[in-house]
Amino acid sequence: MTKPFIIFAVVSLLGGCVGYPRLLNYPVDPGGRSLNSLGSELNPQVSKRYVVFTTDRRGSQDVYMFDRLTNNLVDLPGLNSFDTIASHPSVAENGRYIVLCANRQGRSGIFLYDRETRQLRNLTANLQAEVRNPTISADGSRIAFESSVNGQWDILVYNRSGQPLNIPQEPR
Length: 172
Hints:
It is a single chain. Helix content is 8%, strand content 40%. The protein is mainly beta. The chain has a single domain (23-159), classed as TolB, C-terminal domain (Neuraminidase, 6 Propeller). The strands form 3 sheets. A 4-stranded antiparallel β-sheet has the order 1-2-3-4, with no helix packed on it. The chain has a 4-stranded antiparallel β-sheet with strand order 5-6-7-8, with no helix packed on it. It starts with a helix and ends in a 13-residue tail after the last strand. It comes from Tolypothrix bouteillei VB521301. This is Tol biopolymer transport system periplasmic protein. It holds the Pfam family PD40. Belongs to the TolB family.
């Protein structure tokens, strides 16, 4: 092997490490004002600028949003409450809508939070089934989640208003 070949090989290998994906390290903030804290951070979901996740840093399992551009937590007034266990949040690309699964008084539901209006709405209040693992489309118009409505786990798709969308059952 010649020296120029070895240099070319090393540069090629190292040059391939600079693009996507990147490893970002957010240090632990003992005060709980950053992405990582002394508590547990679970179920992260990234949508361009924002990361949503659940954490128990305040003593209850709540949803938090982190802005990767400003490196700060985003205030979410009206979203979290002490009588609710939140899990599996998902955020629309622009950060306006957050969908999550929450358990209140022993009953699970899929909730949609609107950051502009600061309103939290149960999309599945009339659905007599267990629900889990919601996700929201990039534009925030559709929410998909798992439901046990037929006695087995199926996927349902709703719009932001909480109305089921007519998705064909058989592939065409």
